[in-house]
Design brief:
Number of helices: 38
Shape: globular
Distance between the termini: 55 Å
Strand order of the largest sheet: 8-9-11-10-16-17-15-14
Strand content: 5-15%
Mean pLDDT: 83
Largest sheet: 8 strands, antiparallel
Radius of gyration: 32 Å
Helix content: 40-55%
């Protein structure tokens, strides 16, 4: 019987251990260690065989490095090994390597290797951070153990002993660069489990720092030398174990090394880890757990880097008392601390006084003081004593409403570290300083240490909660904190959409505490996209009462929480030029003070949903709603044409004197068009109508105040016009971000904001459409409007493209929902359609409405991440559709059309 080859034996041996590892349902880091030790046996045997054959000179050893060296070998990770020798130029070393590596390569076992002389490696470690951390990770596998032990001792003395500050600075810089490279935030929709912020690499940094600063290699040693409190070590271990299991399941499903947690992976891994749909989706529960674990690791990494920065000299320590239980500790830089940490138990307000001093003096907290506070906040009696302290409640209110952001100060300067970093980490000029505060609001820092949750217990339920809808980019707690940042930064930052009016309103608001609390607690009950405001308000009410707010302030804050989502819907989905609608909404708001704060809260929450959520168009709609309701509440709405007349006059002033058709368009433009656009945009429409000279005209140009493109269409109105236009756009796979569609007497003017197509057609830098692409869009739309091509032929292109194998990456599921409202408008039937965004959705809806014999007078197209929220104001034979059977037929026709589109994909 033929004996198996060495490579076959290695393959079978490795596969057996890997399969055993992969078969585990709930693997732990201990299982990773078992896998690593199993691989050790194979490499030991190969190394011994190679050494016996090659007989190299001097001492030589095989060591494991990287994750393999740390005994955390991932399921599909490379085997990182190194040969250490005191005779690196010996030809026999090359021969030993051949014996060691060729069987592994033939067996297709992933392995990376290097060869180093001991002195060479020490020299490299002085200058190269990766080599320095490699020295800290290396683990003896085979050969001369004394060589490895001696190298580790020399490394500690030579590399870390005299250069510890430089090493800590280099690690800090590496963290910053790596975080930027992988997305900066740990709250990304599709996070990187290994290298992202709060990922497993940050856990490695904690271990390196602990080893370099205190020679503590294990968690037990960290506790023994008081590097980390026991409770924090336990929390860190649980977080690291969880991320490790996530990475394990990613590797097992992909059957390769994959560390990015994509949307499709999230649903699969949630199932693998045993999460089940309950009140929240299984995937939302899983991702909430992921973000909590990543946050634990990220915070521990930041704190460890702060703690490890050594003082300059023992004699430089100074402690100067400031009074009220607070002192300044100066070594090497001034930082605030408790004069006596034990005083916290009897004086809980001291915790907030420390942060008040930090903000007033622009000084960060001493890490020891922060650690002490974290330990106290783990004690339930202390948290309760905070809420029972009138002084704590008062300072808490002042801190939450403090204007602006905190000090940007780096506690471990990453500049001029002295260690060379790989070129793929990016240049120094791109790196932002890291710190405890990092330019954030005080509320964000209070959340990190747990003080925010201690004072507002319901807020803790938001920590790590995710909305699996793509429109929300951040976890619920971070979303609320970013919304508060937007609000508090209005006096300093008026650069974004909607901030000019918002800053004016903010300056006019003296009592801001209810607004701040409403922003923080607005999403307590938001587990899906249903109406959640009233339930969130009910959940918030007990916490508001415990804060000592007056009954009036509690009621007002609850009202803001309940109505903030409604305000956005009123602005984007309702015709607020309709007097009946305006009267109804004004009756709900009741006063200009409530309106002002509702506008601010709603704008802040929308702006923080994702970086592009508050578009210039949405900001204008919300501002227009504010102006309309303000006029109604102040008794000025009976002259509601006043504001529209002002805009009309400003637009006319921008036209040349001979633009007669354009001027006529402005004079006859409906109020809803005037109030939804700035005068500059109205003037552009007018010039466009002038150029048309009564004929069909299609134009595509860069929009005024957005990076998108504006497609404008002027044409004689007819049944099916919108269906034809949208079919042409769908055939070219044009993505519509927003649209305004107006029917005026005997002609229509449609404005579409379009963006980069899903298939990635020629896009130049900064998102510019290529001339060929622009020409193709205008010609196709013009042909459709003129009836030169049928909508059926255009849609066949969409279906052919969908069946050709191209598809978007898997995204969270979006339910189709169709609402028909005959109450909100006296003149129109309103159809709200919510559906997954896809090529052809707008056409399907428009075509279904046409098939039912209805006409579209006004449409508002709104894209929210992967979901579209399209609103159509329709009539039939010039009237609202009152017949229940016709309304149900309309609903079914739209639903069937959208279902047909989905089945084609």
């Amino acid at each position: 019987m033929e004996q198996p080859s060495l490579s076959q034996t290695c393959a079978e041996y490795f596969q057996r251990h890997q399969n055993n590892y992969a078969s585990l349902a709930t693997p732990t880091l201990a299982d990773a260690e078992t896998f690593a030790f199993g691989v050790d046996g194979m490499l030991n045997a190969l190394f011994c065989a190679g050494r016996a054959k090659a007989q190299p000179k001097g001492a030589i050893a095989l060591v494991a490095v990287g994750g393999y060296g740390r005994k955390t070998l991932a399921l599909r990770a490379d085997l990182d090994i190194a040969i250490l020798t005191d005779a690196p130029d010996d030809p026999a070393v090359r021969e030993l390597l051949d014996v060691l590596l060729y069987p592994l390569w033939d067996a297709k076992i992933p392995v990376s290797h290097s060869v180093h002389g001991v002195e060479e490696m020490l020299a490299l470690a002085h200058e190269d951070l990766r080599v320095a951390t490699t020295l800290m990770d290396l683990r003896f596998v085979a050969g001369d153990r004394e060589l490895v032990t001696a190298l580790q001792k020399k490394a500690r003395r030579a590399v870390l002993g005299g250069q510890l500050p430089r090493f800590i600075r280099a690690l800090s810089k590496e963290c910053e660069a790596r975080h930027r490279r992988y997305g900066s935030s740990l709250f990304l929709l599709e996070p990187e489990v290994k290298n992202g912020k709060g990922g497993l690499r940050d856990a490695d940094v904690i271990q390196w720092v602990s080893q370099a600063r205190w020679n503590a290699r294990s968690e037990k040693e960290m506790i023994r030398v008081s590097v980390i409190p026991p409770a924090e070590v336990s929390e860190l271990r649980e977080a690291k174990d969880f991320l490790w299991r996530v990475r394990f399941h990613l590797h097992r499903r992909a059957k390769r090394q994959q560390d990015r947690l994509t949307f499709s992976d999230q649903e699969d891994v949630a199932e693998d880890l045993g999460f089940e749909d309950r009140e929240m989706l299984a995937v939302e529960q899983f991702m909430g757990e992921y973000y909590r674990a990543a946050r634990t690791i990220a915070q521990a990494c930041s704190r460890m880097l702060d703690r490890a920065t050594p003082p300059k000299r023992r004699g430089d320590k100074t402690l100067r008392a400031l009074g009220n239980g607070i002192s300044v500790f100066s070594n090497p830089k001034p930082q605030l601390t408790f004069t006596k940490s034990a005083a916290l138990r009897g004086d809980p307000a001291l915790a907030f006084r420390l942060y008040a001093e930090s903000a007033a003096r622009m000084l960060p907290l001493y890490p020891f003081a922060r650690d002490t506070l974290l330990q106290r906040l783990d004690e339930r009696p202390f948290r309760e004593s905070l809420r029972d302290s009138p002084a704590a409640l008062d300072i808490f209110r002042q801190l939450l409403t403090r204007r602006g952001t905190l000090l940007r100060q780096s506690s471990s300067d990453a500049r001029n570290s002295g260690f060379a970093l790989p070129p793929d980490f990016g240049g120094e000029a791109e790196l932002a300083p890291t710190s405890i505060y990092g330019g954030r609001t005080l509320a964000e820092e209070l959340h990190d240490v747990g003080l925010l949750g201690a004072m507002l217990p319901p807020f803790d339920s938001l920590t790590g909660r995710v909305y699996h809808d793509v429109f929300h980019f951040y976890t619920a707690d971070i979303h609320a904190l970013f919304a508060l940042r937007w609000l508090l930064m209005l006096p300093e930052d008026r650069s974004g959409p909607g901030t000019a009016l918002a800053a004016h309103l903010y300056a006019s608001t003296a009592h801001r505490y209810p607004m701040v609390l409403a922003v923080l607690l607005h999403a307590l009950a938001k587990y899906d996209d249903s109406e959640h405001g009233a339930e969130s308000a009910a959940l918030a009410k007990p916490a508001l009462e415990e804060l000592g707010l007056s009954k009036a302030d509690v009621a007002h804050t609850c009202w803001l929480i309940e109505k903030q989502g409604h305000y956005y819907h009123w602005a984007t989905r309702r015709d607020h030029t309709d007097p009946a609608v305006v009267q109804e909404l004004a009756g709900d708001v009741r006063s200009t003070d409530r309106l002002r704060e509702l506008h601010l809260v709603s704008s802040a929450i929308l702006a923080a949903t994702n970086p592009g959520a508050l578009t210039p168009w949405k900001a204008r709609l919300m501002e227009s709603l504010y102006a309309t309701l303000s006029a109604e509440l102040e008794g000025r709405y009976e002259d509601r044409t006043g504001r529209a007349s002002d805009i009309r006059g400003l637009a006319l002033a921008l036209l040349p004197p001979d633009a007669k058709r354009g001027a006529a368009f402005v004079h006859n433009a409906p109020e809803r068009l005037l109030l939804s656009n700035p005068p500059e945009a109205i003037a552009r429409f007018a010039r466009f109508v002038e150029e048309a000279n009564g004929e069909t005209n299609v134009d595509l140009k860069e929009a005024l105040d957005t990076e998108l493109y504006e497609l404008r269409i002027f044409a004689a109105d007819r049944p099916g016009l919108l269906a034809d236009i949208t079919a042409a756009l769908a055939a070219l796979h044009v993505e519509v971000a927003d649209a305004q569609i107006y029917t005026l007497d005997n002609f229509a003017i449609d404005v579409f904001l379009i963006q980069k197509t899903a298939t990635g057609h020629s896009i130049h830098p900064r998102g510019t459409l290529s001339p060929a692409r622009r020409e193709a869009i205008t010609n196709s739309v013009l042909a459709a409007v003129n009836g030169e091509v049928s909508r059926e032929a255009l849609m066949r292109k969409v279906h052919h493209h969908s069946s050709s194998g191209w598809a978007r990456r898997k995204r969270p599921h979006v339910e189709t929902e169709i609402r028909i409202d005959n109450r909100s408008s006296m003149r129109f039937t309103i159809i709200d359609v919510f559906n997954r965004d896809a090529t052809g959705v707008l056409h399907c809806i428009a075509e279904a409405i046409r098939e039912c014999g209805a006409s579209i007078a006004l449409a508002k197209v709104n894209t929210e991440g992967e979901r579209v929220a399209d609103i159509f104001y329709v009539t039939r034979d010039g009237k609202k559709i009152e017949n229940p059977a016709l309304l149900e037929h309309l609903r079914e026709t739209i639903a069937n059309s959208l279902a047909s589109l989905s089945s084609d994909r």
